[in-house]
């Protein structure tokens, strides 16, 4: 049986029991934790799951054709994560990976129209969904945990402060561009706390609407504006450029274009910071389930791929910071909030959607814990002397910004918009 061959080859750590559609059970692994038993409800799954298992196993779970008899979804995905290297080495998966690579450049072709369609697939879902698992500011990217016990709201505020400090807003009124501005939280922070004149650009219609409403309610429309436009359609120069959680959607084939445009947009003495998911290890394709169902066109770069394009652009790499387990903790918080509001999300969509998003949130968390994923913050400039000689200014600016937050953050627009969207 093909599926038996796959699991016998793959499962070396942990314990997986598989009950087939005829009620027969086979066990795999070394007997250690985690221990999980799954049941397959149709006979054809025994060969279907062995062809493209990273996608087909997830689809069977989403459709209720694969259920858990013992253990939980975290345990099942942990077994998959701990044994993924063995899975990738099986001939059926090698064949699927080869096919994926053949079509990768076509899938990563990223003209403006296609980029907007890919964004809409995920970010134009119901605003209520995001209110049910994100923080009040709707920060949908890796938080920054200054202490292990920090709550999600504090960690997301610390992320914005950390990025702003790296951008060095040493003068009021500096022109800033936020590429991929989401629901506006980062841009609003820069306008309200860093005294910047900010333009945010997004391709999401829903994000654009809420961003504009938040800026108006905060009384920041003179210093913070949002445009429904592709960053490639903007003209500079900007003194500061920030991009958080957008670079993952650029695609490997388009890195040269991204950094070339970044250089064109940046003022001669300007500073830019890119915050993105990356890989510790060698270049590889993004998880096929994530690409098909969650983020079409998405990509997770190794730094070696990124730096080649930075060098070609003429930009100077001033600083790189690697955030190791911060995204794993962020995803853990999101998953816990998702589960706490699961019934409301099922009423908003359906049970299949809930299973799909549990796979996404849990799978990504375990990817950051076990499969070489990380977040990098890349700081680039056009001039060698655009920043101080040492990194001390970052710490000093974080302290200064934290003091300003205490003065300026009554932040009524966060609570009111969050409440209104959740009604």
Spatial order of strands in the largest sheet: 7-6-5-8-9-11-10
Structural class: alpha/beta
CATH first level of the largest domain: which class?
Answer: Alpha Beta
Portion of residues within helices: 40-55%
Please, what is the average pLDDT?
A: 90
- Poorly predicted runs of 5 or more residues: 411-423
Instruction: Please count the helical segments.
Output: 20
CATH architecture descriptor of the largest domain:
3-Layer(aba) Sandwich
Radius of gyration using CA atoms only: 22 Å
Number of domains: 2
Task: Output the CATH homologous superfamily of the largest domain.
Answer: Vaccinia Virus protein VP39
> How far apart, in Å, are the first and last alpha carbons?
51 Å
Strand content: 15-25%
Number of strands: 11
* Biggest β-sheet description: 7 strands, mixed
- Global shape: elongated
**CATH fold group of the largest domain:** Rossmann fold
């Amino acid at each position: 049986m093909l599926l038996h061959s796959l699991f016998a080859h793959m499962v070396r750590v942990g314990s997986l029991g598989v009950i087939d559609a005829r009620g027969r059970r086979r066990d795999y692994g070394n007997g250690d934790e985690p221990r999980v038993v799954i049941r397959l409800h149709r006979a054809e799954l025994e060969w279907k799951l062995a062809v493209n298992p990273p996608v087909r196993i997830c689809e069977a779970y989403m459709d209720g054709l694969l259920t858990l008899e013992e253990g939980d979804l975290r345990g099942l995905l942990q077994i998959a994560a701990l044994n993924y290297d063995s899975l990738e080495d099986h001939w059926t998966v090698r064949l699927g990976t080869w096919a994926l690579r053949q079509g990768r450049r076509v899938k990563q072709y990223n003209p403006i129209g296609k980029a907007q369609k890919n964004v809409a697939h995920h970010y134009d879902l119901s605003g209520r969904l995001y209110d049910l698992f994100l923080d009040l500011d709707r920060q949908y990217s890796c938080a920054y945990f200054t202490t292990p016990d920090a709550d999600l709201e504090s960690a997301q505020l610390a992320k914005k402060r950390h990025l702003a400090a790296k951008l060095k807003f040493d003068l009021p009124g500096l022109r800033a561009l936020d590429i991929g501005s989401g629901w506006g939280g980062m841009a609003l922070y820069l306008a309200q706390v860093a005294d910047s004149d900010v333009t945010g650009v997004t391709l999401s219609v829903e994000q654009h609407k809420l961003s504009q409403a938040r800026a108006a309610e905060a009384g920041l429309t003179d210093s913070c504006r949002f445009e429904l436009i592709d960053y490639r359609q903007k003209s500079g120069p900007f003194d500061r450029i920030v991009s958080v959680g957008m670079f993952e959607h650029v695609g490997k084939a388009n890195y040269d274009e991204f950094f070339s445009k970044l250089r064109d947009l940046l003022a001669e003495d300007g500073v830019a910071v890119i915050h993105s998911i990356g890989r510790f290890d060698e270049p590889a394709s993004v998880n096929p389930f994530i690409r098909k169902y969650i983020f079409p066109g998405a990509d997770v770069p190794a730094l070696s791929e990124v730096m080649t394009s930075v060098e070609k652009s003429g930009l100077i790499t001033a600083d790189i910071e690697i955030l190791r387990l911060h995204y794993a903790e962020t995803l853990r918080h999101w998953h816990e909030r998702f589960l706490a509001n699961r019934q409301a999300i099922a009423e908003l969509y359906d049970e299949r959607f809930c299973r799909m998003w549990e796979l996404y949130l849990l799978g990504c968390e375990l990817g950051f814990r076990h499969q070489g994923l990380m977040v990098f913050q890349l700081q680039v400039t056009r001039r060698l002397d655009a920043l101080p000689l040492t990194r001390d200014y970052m710490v000093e600016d974080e302290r200064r910004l934290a003091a300003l937050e205490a003065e300026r953050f009554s932040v009524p627009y966060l609570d009111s918009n969050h409440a209104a969207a959740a009604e």
